[in-house]
């Protein structure tokens, strides 16, 4: 179908829809059944069986299975079956971990699924893009990604960037008029908007004419590459580390086997023991556990209202040293209420709170009658007309559809009894030039009952003043003299220094029937009418969050389009601007070179009257000074800076699709305090990963050393293969997972940010691993020797004791891993998962030791109660010997 050839009416007829009411819910459900969901077919998924089998592709596991097979053939059935069972259980665990990680990543994708504004049953509401059907009427604006193929029926300054489809990155202006021509290429179908393209400017309304695979995008969907799974820098480091550890573990194993054979052990026994040892000592599960820890952290972050879109950001968050934050809505509540108005040298106060339209006007403490104050009336009326926002009463609350700044103007007008309904008969809007944050203005052309036309502009007062040539003063137009300008400047200052956000209103009478087609033509030679000052209260939790960030070595920088005085006043209230801190304005930034900015960037805490384009310059300057930068944003123009920042952050509520797509983190509540929570969580996740690396590696070192030392001392094997495998599965597995869920230490937000290039073993971790591992090995061996010397005929008993000591030493050590400082620093019962994991491990150990049917399988014997004193005594040595000792403190 050539939709571009159809008129609006024809399009509505063909798609059987209604322009005023849209489709009914029933019709939508029916069409969804017929057409299917509005989705592009996805690439094939890896089958569950394949994921399961992948768990066994590891080389050492294969060697182990082969060795087991041999032992089975040699008649050691019980050993063979037990080992295979353990390997399979291990495989299942790996499989579930991987599934879980994948599931939570998918859930994330759904959370950030795109939504669109659709008209259904006569009401505009947000709908998931995948639920669109042909005939849906949809609305979109700057920053939105188009959700389906659409025939436009309304377009206001609409421009769409279609590079995803056509490769052309220059945005195309869009109109609604019918096009003629036979084979108009996609790029020239200017009354169409296509799925996957981006609105860069203006706004539009249209009818959905194609969904899912029946869109232009669907036809090329096969060409789209499936996104690759990203791996984080830490995961990469661990993979490299893993390779080194494999070699070290193998060498040590060969050493153990070699010495064992030299000392007269049987080659076959040593081989099986060696392979088991290698399987246990190689931390093959490390990357998988890291993924699980990351994804669990990501889920915790969702509960705290931030969504991670790019997994590596979780790690980078912990390194953030500067947060550049928007002011409006992020540091402040974005609930605006006009409290002051100014025109022609006169100031009025306006009472009321929030968007509730009750309040009264007063001047010098006395109530005034608005109908007697001509300029005040005009100021309010024009503020209402040059406005795209509606405020409606819903139950007891007033809800805003649109921009809070504009809502404040609507409510101020309502307080003087001006509503759109009331003034509809007197004025109509015939042209609209929407607000953008680079121009910092919005304009309309209106026509009165008397057919007289005006341009009405509202926007940043300093900008409007520059574009004004005269001013309303004592009900007359006066040429704006330098002293007049100064008077207006003073009025702006006086409002701004009370932390008020100021909007100026100006206008220009037109010749009758004069038409204006561009914003440049509209916004010039204006008559300055007056100012409206509105409060935007700071978010109550921000001040504390800023302080916590400062304690954590993170600087907070405010970046705002607002007036410099307003910005400064709020920055001071929030504790962002310290004594001696600098404030830079957008126009100063313009004149500075990149290197000039770098020279001062560390002293600047507030950037005011900036355009989104300046943000990139700021990010680059900070990065040049070796900062790890988090940068927030919401609009299309913020996207480059969000992308360039180390942690790009988009607003979940006010953010456009473009900003979200560029971001690594989305704030569901647009709140600065949420960034702080995310950083805290990011630091904690990293610390937890360190904790279980420390635990796992120290355990592995212990396991290898106990075998190595025994061989050197010409002792029998202190542990049999199945015991080693059991330790690997149970003692190493459960508690390590639980460490991934550990609570943050009290001082995570009191430390400096971690350096992004910091190695895995930094801050004394390597020393801790080696020293604790060494002690675990020695303690286990000591227990073995004591019992074995006592009764050399009962090797199995001594082995059971060694097994129990190794397990207990690890289970005590795991609590030590929770703290950078010492085990005594933290309450061991804080992490209930860990307590649970340790108790389960102990119970499983007791079962293996005391349950008769299992004893032959695990080569164990019931341990006499008094022997437990030796076991527990020795098992505590590794942890408590070094706990809080000078050695640890010096190294950490
Ligand atoms: N809808 C609007 N119509 C006209 N002017 C506006 C509108 N919204 C804001 N302004 C003016 O433009 C200025 C810049 O607004 P912009 O949205 O770029 O930044 P901001 O919201 O003030 O700050 P931040 O960057 O912290 O969100 C405002 O200070 C205000 O004077
Ligand atoms: Ca903004």
UniProtKB/TrEMBL annotation:
InterPro entries in alphabetical order: ATPase_P-typ_cation-transptr_C, ATPase_P-typ_cation-transptr_N, ATPase_P-typ_cyto_dom_N, ATPase_P-typ_P_site, ATPase_P-typ_TM_dom_sf, ATPase_P-typ_transduc_dom_A_sf, ATPase_P-type_domA, Cation_transp_ATPase_P-type
SUPFAM superfamilies assigned to the protein according to its UniProt record, in alphabetical order: Calcium ATPase, transduction domain A, Calcium ATPase, transmembrane domain M, HAD-like, Metal cation-transporting ATPase, ATP-binding domain N
Keyword annotations from UniProtKB, A to Z: ATP-binding, Cell membrane, Ion transport, Magnesium, Membrane, Nucleotide-binding, Phosphoprotein, Translocase, Transmembrane, Transmembrane helix, Transport
PROSITE patterns assigned: ATPASE_E1_E2 (PS00154)
Span of domain Cation-transporting P-type ATPase N-terminal: 2-76
TM annotation in the entry: 56-74, 80-96, 244-262, 268-296, 692-714, 720-741, 769-788, 794-812, 832-852, 868-887
UniProt xrefs under SMART domains: Cation_ATPase_N (SM00831)
Principal location class: membrane
Topological type in the membrane: Multi-pass membrane protein
Locations listed in the record: Cell membrane
Sequence similarity: Belongs to the cation transport ATPase (P-type) (TC 3.A.3) family. Type IIA subfamily.
Protein name: Calcium-translocating P-type ATPase, SERCA-type
Lineage: Bacteria, Bacillati, Bacillota, Bacilli, Bacillales
